[in-house]
Amino acid sequence: MFYCGSLLMIFITGPTKDKKEALGELLNGDRLVTAPYKLDFLNDKDSEIACKNKLTKEQVAQFREAISKDFYFQMYYDDLPIWGFIGKVEKEGKNDPSEYKYYLLKHLHFTIFYNKDRVIEITALSDPKNVVDLTEDKEVNVEFMYSVKWKETEIPYEKRMEKYSQSSSLPHHLEIHWFSIINSCVTVLLLTGFLATILMRVLKNDFVKYAHDEESAEDQEETGWKYIHGDVFRYPKYKSVLAAAVGSGTQLFTLTFFIFLLALVGVFYPYNRGALFTALVVIYALTAGIAGYTAASFFCQLEGTNWVRNLLLTGGLFCGPLLLTFSFLNTVAITYSATAALPFGTIVVIFLIWALVTTPLLVLGGIAGKNSKAEFQAPCRTTKYPREIPLLPWYRKTLPQMAMAGFLPFSAIYIELYYIFASVWGHRIYTIYSILFIVFIILLIVTAFITVALTYFQLAAEDHEWWWRSFLCGGSTGLFIYGYCLYYYFARSDMSGFMQTSFFFGYMACVCYGFFLMLGSIGFRASLFFVRHIYHSIKCE
């Protein structure tokens, strides 16, 4: 079947037949209709009439505006995409925009390549001489025509999609991608080498010092991170929220891992419409049990009692803001009559997935976590009363520490971010998932290491409230990514208007919030492992 974007086809043919979209296509905003072009296999055509139509003054004005903004059509034939501009602007010798001439292209020439009984490639070129003048606001009669030429090719059917993935694999693109990888690797090596050397040397000196103190003078006053051994494992404030955040972050990490797995095996080939959104919805629903188990288990380790409330908090910590954002943006899309507005039936399907799959798995995971009977296993006993935290300089406060923690991981990924943004919010094709996966692994390593380093310096300053600090420092990269959104919107994109602005910043806020939870849980887990290790290595009375 031959499908095309609905706006152009409605102008050309009037009433059209809609294509039934899958869930991912609906989430992606795809609304395809059958096109009037008849491309029968091996049947050449020359100047065939697609349809005749009379454009009203309003339609002429709409087409003229679309042509001035370089609108183009996108059609699919046998799941192969076709693009083409709908018109052209004649500007030669004219300095005043009011003197520009606007022409609608009305003749398409299709060239279709085939191998045996399979379609391999299709192109659509417009005849620049066969046009209709739309410069003036008046009714115009248009006769849309097309030609078809079939040609044989030796390209096998299995390789027909390679043409569309080559754009992101061109030498200059690959050069930039590999520069991104090298930049990230150098950042990681320098960071890990520098901090590892400092930490290992400082920790070694600490261990030697503390061992010597124990042998020489039992009553000598303790200093540094050993001094707060009786407070470092004191359970944090708002432990239910922390457990829910760690559970949600672990679920999002699992979701990201499986998405990368599908991408690396070739599921998200170019123009597999809606595959990514379908995978996101399904995998998120199926991994809800991981969030429930992680949150409930950790909450019970922290001697929490109301695990049901913790489970509700876990279920709504990410989905709640996402639901509110979606409700607002979907209302905006409905107001603008945009295809980005989800139909009521799709909303019902997503609600049923959440009610019948996500929620039961979350509850089952929570019950399993509660019954796991896991203990926290603190290597040091916690004192009855907390020690007073000494007055610290401003750069040791939470916000400056978050700024330091987020900058280094962000510097390792910022080059790759442009290509991701251009693919999601623009029209570029992104297919080099292997490089993206390497960058993601580097991001995790840098996040874990910088969070561990800042946690050590915090403990060395005798500040024992490291639980929330480690989570916030780990997740601060999400705030830097949202800051990059501002740069991309104003400096790199041509987006404008309330709808585009609200969609961009609204949905990117949800994505960055997801990164905040995921990287926060990574940073917290790394810090927890580190703190347990160093206090297990010393003798604490």
Secondary structure blueprint with pairings:
Layout: E1 2-5, H1 6-13, H2 23-27, E2 32-34, E3 45-55, H3 57-68, E4 72-77, E5 80-85, E6 87-90, E7 101-105, E8 107-115, E9 118-126, E10 131-133, E11 140-152, H4 162-165, H5 171-216, H6 239-264, H7 275-286, H8 288-301, H9 307-335, H10 344-370, H11 398-424, H12 433-460, H13 467-475, H14 477-492, H15 497-536
Helix pairs in contact: 5-11, 5-12, 6-7, 6-8, 6-9, 6-15, 7-10, 8-9, 8-10, 9-10, 9-15, 11-12, 11-13, 11-14, 12-13, 12-15, 13-15, 14-15
Detail the poorly predicted runs.
5-15
Quaternary structure of the protein:
single chain
Please tell me the overall pLDDT.
Answer: 84
Rg over C-alpha atoms, rounded to the nearest angstrom: 29 Å
Element string (H = helix, E = strand): EHHEEHEEEEEEEEHHHHHHHHHHHH
- Strand order within the widest beta sheet: 2-1-4-5
Q: Classify the beta-strand content into a percent band.
A: 5-15%
Global shape: elongated
Description of the structure:
The chain is built from 15 helices and 11 strands. The relative contact order is 0.11. It has a 4-stranded antiparallel sheet with strand order 2-1-4-5. The protein is 56% helix and 13% strand. By secondary structure, the protein is of the alpha+beta class. It is elongated. Helix 13 (467-475) crosses helix 15. The longest helix has 46 residues, at 171-216.
